[in-house]
Input
Amino acid sequence: TVTIVGRDEERLRGAAQMLRQEGARVHDLPCDLLDRSALGGLVSRAQALAGPVEILLNNAGIQNRAPLGDF
Output
């Protein structure tokens, strides 16, 4: 079972559908990971659907673009 998360519900549903077409069992949970107050609920929902998290792959991120010396 795979649980995928994203803030764009349309893209999230599309990704889940593509995985299902390949035979995967998928739960798609919309959530904006920048909203810290939503994270606890997200973990609870994911575990209720799929059980304990065994592997976590994080592909979320924010880019700050600036010359190296400005960081």
Summary: Helices lie at 9-21, 36-50. The beta strands are 2-6, 26-30.
